[in-house]
Amino acid sequence: MSAHDLYVISPYLGVAGTALLVILLDLVVTKKGLLPIFAILGLLAPLALTLIQAFDLNDSLNLVKGSELLATSEPSVLLGSLSVDRFAIFFNFLVLAAAALVIMSSTDYLRQMDQYQGEYYGLILFSATGMMLLSAATELITIYIAVELTTMPLVALAAFMNSAKSSEAGMKFFIVGAISSALMLYGMALIYGFTGTTIISEIAASVGNASGDIPFGNYALLVGLVLLLVGFGFKISSVPFQMWVPDVYEGGPTPVIAFLSVASKAAAFAILLRVFFSGFFDVSLDWAALMAALAAASMVIGNLVAVSQSNIKRLFGYSAIAHAGYILVGVAAGVKVTGADSNIPEFASIGPDSVLFYLAAYTAANLTAFFAITAIGMRIGSDRIEDYAGVARRSPVLAAILALSLAALLGVPPTSIFIAKLYIFTAAVNADLVWLAILGVITSVVSAYYYVRIIRVMFLQTSTTAERISAPPASWAALAIAGGAMLFIGIAPGFVLELSKAAVGPLTP
Fold first, then answer.
1. What would the pLDDT profile of 255-275 be if each residue is shown by its tens digit?
2. Count of Cβ atoms closer than 10 Å to residue 232 Cβ
């Protein structure tokens, strides 16, 4: 491995090294409150390295479309395995920000635990390493390893609390994760067996040259790609692969669920976009209809089932399913305009653009909501929506922040997801998927019922106690940063829009 290879993977090594350092420090540090400080300071190194790589792409390669840091004359063992380009760097920033904020918000949550705090922060960082690798992976084995590195720490974290529900959440997550990984691995084996390569670009070239009426040239290869898509479906929690979500969200630690809901989803969508926009959507197969059907089912089922939930974390589980559907609207739009039968190439990148922008907006809004839920839930000792009665009188600021984040998830201006939904539905209309955009608007109206219900309980119902609800400084800082990002993206979306457009450059022809 050359020095250039080490430079390319240095952000990933930095996050993994920080995880190891925090675990080792846990053995010698008596004040456990120092561990999150070390973890957050340690993330500054991979953040700086990612910034250097971004400037390197900007200056040295002049932002050539499809350019990447591996585009060098030096021999590299990473060629074909990773594509460290603007697309990967975009998700590096997203995952690093989510990991740092979740660690910051977890300090108060972990005070009830005298042990395993180092392991908690280390597992979050190891999972973040897998997510970052997943967004850059361009080879099947690398994808599989990154998926496992992402999932297994989250399984342990879901079962981290010493309770029956937490253990159940971890077990269900483990079983579903194992099934999805097995399906994905079997699909990869079929793909390799019939193409003779594990590199995505070479697989795309092989299936693109296939002849005959059968997509991809033979049914076995078609089955392999479908199984790969099924594996991704579990990771993004879309219907009909969503059965694990509500139970895991209810039983897992709230900060862990916050991380799972945004960073893991973002990484899964990143690899979905990279794999299928590498050439598989050019195959004469109606991928757009499949993606649109998954999007429609996720939006409808996620929103309708959320209406009947009484547990706020289960409600957010179904909300996550619905938002996976909204994001898939952007994927369907991108597929529609870049597929083999597309006749509207002038909108070639608006689908992928909208997906990246929505992921950034959703990350800010959902983290804000979960951080507020963590702070409130710690004080009231319950996740039932009815127990949020009178929270506005016990903590007006926390109640206002949670209400604002719920309004953002609903899509009320001037918050981030209003712009994101507008952008993603515009992409659907431009791609001749007007019916999908209309369905998205209708389901957004349905979601108003359960989001507003939480606000009504907090502000209009009376609490049985007048005890004040507070939060430690670290939790307030995490809330302020996430909430500020949520408002900034909604009020001045141009910056993130430009980043999204630049990031999808390597994916579009």
1. 999 999 999 999 999 998 888
2. 22
